């Protein structure tokens, strides 16, 4: 009898202790309890799931891929995180992409309702504005759509470098220059995150190509990495503190970025003081345990195999649970800020009409007038019958493909924009092109995202009009507009033939149209609706004016018409060079590298993984740094762009002739034209090169005037700090400013310098000592300038 009572007492005591523990756990909630207490209450299995996403739900992905299925909290979003309801930890939603929210427009159970988003001007176009205030305004509107569609983190902006014009995702990226890239990205992040949602700047780092993107080893020197490929990310992190950073697919110097603690911990956190968390690109890297140890906090989109590998590694002592806890803390700190955690009741109805107006303004303000011979532009509405040639005049390319695409409710073509602006567009030509495009669409039905990604539909080839018809239109029309289009995107890089260079049909068409219209003493305007740089040298002489519209978003046709008509005076400038020929590009011989097909393996979703490597042997001589240092003349230089008026520069002054911590430069810009306009002012610095080989000049500041009325002036101020003077000295692992004379040049482009002056630095200055990391395993024979000792 006593034994039974003792058993009963023990049973009651155990039950009491279990209930007390359970009750204690139920009182622990994220936001009400400390993060340490929340972590303590988690099981190992919960921890291993929290650092791994819920999977990937992509229509068209075959079964048996091991991809998993994400919770459809926001249909079409790229992924979600694991929720632990008992601890008050919600699932958060992440969504593509850099040029607009990418979600499914149609959902089950909501018949008749669509969920569209604004297709914003692409990154390269926004960077051409050189206007961070404008970009922040776009970001603020963009972030509102993110929030109202129930998304917590936007997977963007993207700010890799335009190393080569054939890069398939260059349209997503801002510039060939890290200062422009970093400042634009920071402005976009600050705008988006002002809504209380997050961003993920990407792809960190050295991911300047799509060819073999999951397997390529980027071989790059410490200096080039620090000065060119990491600098934009550093600027964005320090000026905006994005919620997250996305590690890239590639290796850098023999190590996956997502498995490299030198990149993700030493540089990103210790040196730059990044506070958010790091997530992988989708299925990036191979070793989940190595990624955890490297400080890649969240693995996306996530697989059950990754969670199991992490759990097993902790149990077997190969992964410290404290490392896992540190990664989770970073994630939880961001979740605490998210709309999902705060219970925000999103509307699924952002103000798309208002956002479209902002997109139109941003596109028009950013377009670059490349040529305007004999003031061919703008042209008056009242007297012009316009003949529009080229399929792109009737089917605008609003943005690129892949994760940079957007499910938009409409897009305004060039002919629609012209018609809306009051121009009469030739109907016969319009009918010919529209019929051709309709026939092509029937023969190439729409595919799923996955099918399109794996086997992209080729773009419709240009339609060649009969020469007699062209001559007929030259007689009856006042003006010809030729629209040339190019598109690219995720997964593939561009080619030189029939892409960078025009097709034979395009070249013949331009020749025929120019001949016919010029015989009638009528103008030829070319509009470039492109995502990446193309050759202009072979045909530019045939055009009277060239407008670079890049990929201008859903309001593109209206924005183009605004510039052509003179409603908007163009003020964009090139943030990337147009070479005279492709062979002039410093990376032309090494892009996209070499492959080792004999070592190929099968990767995720059955995709073939071919080991490859690319050597950045141009070193720091990327873009304009190369052209101005080696005396190579581009067709259109970095920073170049025309307006319908002229600006004069004067009174360049420095606050001192010797550097002591910082120096201020001021210059006055005056509108010497007859209509209002804006000017982009650029400051280039030439530094002593006694110790280190350096470019002849580097961009160190830029500013854009307000809309200046005729005769009005504005003084632009630049502040140069110690870091602006410094270059990276690999041997010292430090940023060093050499003693000597520094020349400050201010102008309208990298070549069109208006005024220069100088100051001295009396003694060499060690600006920042950093860690010796990311060292290449092989010797790189980097390009050196002609003045190198």
Kindly report the oligomeric state of this protein: single chain
Could you estimate the helical fraction of the residues in percent?
Answer: 25-40%
* Cα separation of the termini: 99 Å
How many strand units?
A: 29
Question: Low-confidence stretches at least 5 residues in length (pLDDT < 50)?
Answer: 1-23, 62-70
How are strands sequenced across the largest beta sheet?
1-2-3-4-6-9
- Give the count of helical stretches: 23
Average pLDDT rating: 93
Percent in strands:
15-25%
Give the overall form: globular
By secondary-structure content and strand pairing, the structural class works out as alpha/beta
Radius of gyration: 28 Å
Largest sheet: 6 strands, mixed
């Amino acid at each position: 009898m006593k034994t039974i009572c003792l058993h009963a007492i023990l049973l009651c005591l155990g039950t009491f202790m279990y209930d007390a523990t359970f009750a204690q756990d139920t009182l622990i909630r994220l936001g009400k309890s400390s993060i340490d207490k929340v972590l303590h209450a988690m099981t190992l299995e919960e921890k291993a799931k929290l650092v791994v996403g819920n999977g990937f739900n992509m229509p068209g992905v075959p079964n048996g891929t091991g991809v998993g299925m994400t919770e459809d909290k926001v249909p079409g979003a790229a992924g979600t995180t694991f929720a632990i309801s008992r601890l008050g930890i919600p699932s958060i939603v992440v969504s593509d992409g850099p040029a607009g929210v990418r979600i499914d427009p149609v959902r089950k159970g909501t018949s008749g309702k669509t969920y569209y988003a604004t297709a914003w001007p692409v990154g390269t176009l926004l960077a051409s504005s050189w206007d961070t205030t404008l970009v922040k305004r776009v970001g603020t509107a963009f972030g509102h759509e993110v929030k109202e569609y129930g998304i917590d983190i936007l997977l963007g902006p993207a700010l890799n470098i335009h190393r080569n014009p054939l890069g398939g995702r260059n349209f997503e990226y801002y510039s060939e220059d890290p200062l422009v890239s970093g400042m634009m990205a920071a402005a976009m992040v600050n705008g988006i995150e002002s809504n209380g949602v997050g961003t993920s700047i990407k792809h960190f780092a050295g991911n300047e190509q799509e060819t073999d993107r999951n397997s390529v080893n980027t071989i790059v020197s410490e200096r080039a990495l620090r000065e060119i490929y990491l600098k934009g990310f550093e600027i964005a992190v320090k000026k905006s503190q994005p919620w997250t950073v996305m590690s890239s697919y590639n290796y850098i110097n023999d190590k996956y970025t997502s498995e490299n603690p030198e990149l993700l911990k030493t540089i990103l956190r210790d040196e730059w003081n990044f506070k958010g968390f790091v997530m992988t690109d989708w299925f990036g890297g191979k070793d989940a345990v190595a990624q955890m140890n490297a400080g890649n906090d969240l693995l996306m989109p996530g697989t059950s195999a990754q969670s199991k590998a992490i759990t097993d590694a902790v149990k077997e002592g190969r992964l410290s649970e404290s490392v896992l806890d540190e990664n989770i803390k970073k994630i939880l700190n961001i979740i605490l800020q998210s709309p999902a955690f705060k219970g925000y009741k999103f509307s699924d109805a952002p103000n798309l009409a208002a956002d479209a107006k902002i997109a139109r303004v941003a596109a028009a303000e950013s377009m670059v007038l490349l040529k305007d011979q004999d003031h061919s532009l703008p042209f008056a509405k009242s007297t012009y019958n316009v003949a529009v040639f080229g399929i792109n005049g009737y089917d605008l390319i609003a943005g690129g493909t892949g994760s940079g695409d957007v499910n938009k409710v409409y897009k305004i073509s060039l002919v629609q924009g012209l018609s809306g602006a009051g121009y009469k567009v030739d109907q016969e030509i319009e009918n010919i092109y529209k019929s051709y495009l309709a026939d092509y669409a029937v023969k190439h039905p729409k595919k799923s995202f996955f099918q399109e990604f794996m086997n992209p539909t080729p773009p419709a080839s240009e339609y060649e009009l009969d020469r007699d018809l062209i001559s007929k239109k030259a007689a009856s029309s006042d003006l010809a507009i030729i629209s040339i289009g190019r598109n690219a995107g995720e997964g593939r890089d561009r080619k030189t033939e029939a892409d960078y260079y025009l097709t034979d049909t395009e070249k013949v068409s331009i020749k025929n149209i120019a001949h016919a219209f010029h015989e009638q003493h009528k103008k030829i305007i070319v509009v470039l609706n492109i995502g990446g740089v193309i050759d202009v040298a072979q045909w530019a002489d045939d055009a009277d004016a060239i407008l670079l519209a890049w990929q201008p978003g859903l309001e593109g046709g209206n924005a183009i018409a605004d510039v052509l008509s003179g409603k908007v005076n163009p003020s964009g400038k090139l943030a990337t060079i147009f070479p005279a020929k492709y062979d002039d590009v410093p990376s032309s011989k090494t892009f996209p590298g070499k492959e080792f097909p004999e070592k190929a393996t099968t990767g995720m979703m059955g995709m073939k993984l071919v080991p490859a490597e690319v050597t950045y042997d141009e070193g720091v001589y990327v873009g304009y740094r190369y052209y101005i240092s080696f005396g190579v003349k581009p067709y259109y230089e970095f920073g170049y762009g025309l307006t319908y008026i002229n600006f004069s520069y004067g009174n360049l002054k420095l606050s001192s002739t010797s550097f002591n911590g910082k120096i201020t430069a001021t210059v006055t810009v005056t509108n010497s034209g007859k209509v209002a306009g804006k000017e982009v002012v650029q400051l280039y610095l030439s530094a002593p090169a006694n110790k280190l080989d350096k470019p002849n000049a580097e961009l160190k500041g830029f500013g854009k005037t307000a809309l200046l009325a005729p005769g009005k002036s504005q003084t632009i101020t630049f502040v140069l700090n110690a870091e602006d003077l410094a270059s990276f000295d690999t041997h010292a692992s430090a940023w060093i400013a050499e003693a000597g004379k520094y020349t400050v040049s201010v102008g309208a482009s990298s070549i069109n310098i208006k005024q220069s002056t100088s100051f001295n630095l009396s003694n060499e200055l060690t600006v920042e000592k950093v860690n010796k990391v990311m060292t290449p395993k092989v010797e790189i024979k980097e390009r050196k300038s002609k003045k190198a000792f």
